[in-house]
Amino acid sequence: MMARLKRLMLIAGLTTALGIGAVFIAIGYKLFRGEGRTVSATEATIMLPKGSRIVSTAALDDRIAVTLDIGGATEIRTFDAKTFKLLGRARFATEP
Fold this sequence. Notes:
The chain contains one helix and four strands, in the order αββββ.
């Protein structure tokens, strides 16, 4: 009876160790799989309206948001971070 219990505990312990090892291997793979990949730099010139001033910028995931002051009116332009293509424009104006 005790030998059977020892064997079952050994199997349970080895299974647990194997599972924990698999988790550590998966974490290590996720952390280090990006090594060796090179990212090419993209260069672009984005034309803004004459007389406009960049107030702020923000980046999130694959989008870049640029807040502009165009002659007293505020405008937010959103660009794709990879292609720098204009995705959207929001203008803010005061009521007359």
